[in-house]
Amino acid sequence: MKNSATPNDNQLTELLSQAKSGDQPSCEAIYHRFVQPIYRLAYGVLLDIQDAEEVVQDTFAYALRNLNRFDPEKSAFRTWLYTIAMCRCRNKRRRKWLPTITLADIAELPASPEPLPEAIVEAHNTREVIWTALRKLSPKLREAIVLRYFDGLSYREMAEVLNCPHKTAESRVRLAHEALYSILASQHDILPEGVLGHE
Amino acid sequence: MSRHVDHLLAAYVEQQLRPKQAAYVYRHVIECPACRAKLAQHERLAGELRMSLGQWPMLRPGQVQQLWLAASTVTIPPANRQSMAALLPLLLSLLLLLMPFTTGFSGMIPNTALAVTASHSPGEIAAQALPDMPSARNISPPESRQAKLTLEATPPPSETETPLPAKPVPLAPANP
């Protein structure tokens, strides 16, 4: 699906065609253009700095090696890159959780894995509060809300990245929004001003 | 006053309602202070999410460069390798197409020619290359070379021809 071409798009197209022929400066320019959004996406989904860095590395190593597989007629480059990153994030989460959780660990897990209220009280910072609430969402809902807000993706683009129907992407975002609202509203008295405070 | 619209507020903020539904919510929140306050909270949450997820965390310049070095060492293949990889399926299919022809041709080569080819010894080759050298001539007996040349000149015998019976060789006297 092609969008109307902007100067940035034209520049990216040129960079991509040069990168496909193995031009290293073009590859580096593409990397610098997308590295921060990919990192934010990976951190938002995985909530771990080291994992996010590994996902950034894997994503660019794969994407720049397989630029010939990118079809501009099918999707935007940004969406293609986010799809790769999301796939890496899911793999990382799967590998991280499957072998590490044992029955003994499960028995020792607290009823709710969220940080203690004292920690939230100490975090007099809206961002901290938001990130703490994000940790309580299920992975699918967190993926959806991160994709929606970290780079302003449309529902169509989200559906493409998440590999799900458009309506599913919409409902996940709505559910995530409602869940975050409930979490923050339930902690209303200990939240700093600015997040769901009284009018 | 119409019914409260709490259940629609998240979808309203996330721009998921149809125009008719969105207009209904809008009309209701103008009249209803409770729903208006909740809508303001939903919108604030969306704003905070946009701020939190859209700007943080950021990689430091040193980290950006470090990750680039790590990713690029395994990333960029040279252009000719890419083109060779693209040609690989074509080359394989050509090889598969030619394979029956190459195996078929080996059966069509005449037996005599094969025999002559097989009769080449290193000594003969050396004699051909260096005819003046006595050592080469010694290695390659002239009779066998003559026989080889004769065989190359004559066409291979057809299968219909019956071979002539071999002449009996008279025994030579031991000592005249």
Regions of chain B with pLDDT < 50 over 5+ consecutive residues?
A: 112-116, 157-162
Query: What fraction of residues of chain A sit in β-strands?
Result: under 5%
Distance between the termini of chain A: 43 Å
Described by its quaternary structure, the protein is: heterodimer
Shape of chain B: elongated
| Most extensive contact | A-B, 51 and 38 residues
Question: What is the N-to-C order of secondary-structure elements of chain B (H for helix, E for strand)?
Answer: HHHHHHHHH
Helix content of chain B: 55-70%
Proportion of residues in extended strands of chain B: under 5%
Overall shape of chain A: globular
Helix tally of chain A equals: 10
Structural class of chain A: mainly alpha
Rg over C-alpha atoms of chain B, rounded to the nearest angstrom: 47 Å
Radius of gyration of chain A: 19 Å
Beta-strand segment tally of chain A: 0
CATH top-level class of the largest domain in chain A: Mainly Alpha
The total count of strands of chain B amounts to 0
Number of helices of chain B: 9
Architecture overview:
The complex is a heterodimer of chains A (199) and B (176). Chain A is built from ten helices and no strands. In chain A, 69% of the residues lie in helices and 0% in strands. About 9% of the residues of chain A have low confidence. Chain A folds into two domains: 109 residues, Rna Polymerase Sigma Factor, Chain: A; 90 residues, Winged helix-like DNA-binding domain superfamily/Winged helix DNA-binding domain (Arc Repressor Mutant, subunit A), CATH 1.10.10. The longest helix of chain A is centred in the N-terminal third of the chain and has 23 residues. Chain A is an all-alpha fold and 199 residues long. Among the domains of chain B are: 50 residues, no CATH class; 43 residues, no CATH class. Chain B has nine helices and no strands. The termini of chain B are far apart. Chains A and B meet through helix 2, helix 3, helix 7, helix 8 and helix 10 of A and helix 1, helix 3, helix 4 and helix 5 of B.
